[in-house]
Design brief:
The protein has 335 residues and is of the alpha/beta class. The chain is 44% helix and 9% strand. Helix 1 crosses helix 2, helix 4 packs parallel to helix 5 and helix 9 runs parallel beside helix 11.
Length: 335
Amino acid sequence: MATLRSRYPGLRPFDAEEQPYFFGREEEIEAVCRLLDLDNLTILHGPSGTGKSSLIHAGILPALSRIRRWDIPYHVVPIRFTNYDPELARIRSEKQGLEGLDSDLIKDPVDRFIVTCLGEKHHWEEVIPMPKPSLWLSAKKMLIDQAIHPLRIVFILDQFEELFSYPEARVEEFARQLGELYHQIVPESVRKGLDRKQIIEAERDPRERGLPSPKAAQLMARIEEPLDVKILVSMRSDKLHYLERLKDYLPEMLLNSYELRTFNTEQAKKAIAQPASLPGDDFVSPAFTISEEVMEALIGFLQDKITRRVDPSQLQIVCQHIEKRIVERERKIRK
């Protein structure tokens, strides 16, 4: 039996399955999708509580899929950063590499990204010797293993401000590798691995000196082929200054950005009224109507007195409470 859902998730972000009742952000969804069209790196920022994660998972990603915005297939890799935990870092350091470690325990930004991308061991490592995994290598492995060509890879880096809670060396390492990914730079260690394979093949069969095996040649061609990558970084506006620490590797970091603001009055009305009116047996409550008078009073109570805008997270909490009261009333009626 399917679990019934609330029409309003409260403080929890909307997820992809809740897209049908995610309202009030139509303009923002289209704006961010346009920015993703224009450049390979987009910064989505806003104050805490404005719903950046909800916009990504219940708005942007379903929109990309629904309207087939791009003419080529694409694969989404969502990464949600968490605050640095020294104890979990110690657990990881006691392991021999990443193999066998639950990815939920990997809080290091580089390693979590790599484990999410890699999954299984590179099957092509048997043909071409490869160095230590990196973001570029992980993306390239994904492209090759998907067996779809061409393929666009969309990386979603949510709660990106948490990256800067990590030790300085790890932040710099992540910045360097993200820069390689964005600028389409084949890491020097990878190039050396390719050259080494050619030397091995030449020494094995003098008649084919300098020529790799057909399988190796095919894989090397795929590895040297440019990646088609889109990167969406989501973070709090009050932490944007942290991006200065990445400018040596990504000087253009803030050239393509979008500020997510709190709701205006019309957006707030949509977010209140439209989920409530949806029919269906998937919700904990029956469909209901919130009168215009109640809606105006609710928005007036939640509005910032200066900007006249409404915090989406506060709105969700209040609406969830209203829905719970309706559920309680329905139970009493049945009795």
